[in-house]
Specification:
- The chain is mainly β.
- About 5% of the residues lie in helices and about 40% in strands.
- The chain has a 4-stranded antiparallel β-sheet with strand order 3-4-5-6. A two-stranded antiparallel ribbon has the order 1-2.
- The longest helix is centred in the middle third of the chain and has 7 residues, at about 55-65.
- The radius of gyration is 16 Å and the shape is globular.
Length: about 110
């Protein structure tokens, strides 16, 4: 899990437990904790990589750029040229709105 956008002042943590849930006898759940939220609405973006391989958070930060403005959609642009737009209509129904790949969909900046 990587703090990609809106997580200024956050800390990464792992909640570890034994015999406490359906994930097996041992579980470790990654999370981010935002210190001192000022209130109101905010946009927080954090990709989660599920892999048994080593994942380098700094490499993920450089592989994805984020464009987020106000209450509008959030656009993620990946190094390969794929972009994903996520709507902000409702926190319970927000999901990918569109996905494009190719040079025409790369983001500026």
């Amino acid at each position: 899990m990587v703090a990609l956008h809106g997580w200024d002042g956050s800390t990464a943590q792992v909640a570890r437990d034994v015999e406490s849930n359906a994930y097996g006898p041992h579980s470790a759940t990654p999370g981010l904790r935002l210190e001192g939220h000022p209130g109101g609405r905010s946009v927080l973006v954090s990709p989660v990589a599920l892999s048994r391989d080593t994942v380098h958070p700094e490499a993920l930060r450089h592989a994805v750029s984020v464009r987020a403005a106000g209450d509008g959609p959030v656009t993620l642009a990946f190094l390969g040229g794929t972009t994903v737009e996520v709507g902000m209509e409702s926190t319970s129904t927000a999901g990918p709105r569109s996905c494009r790949s190719g040079a025409e969909s790369t983001m500026e900046g």
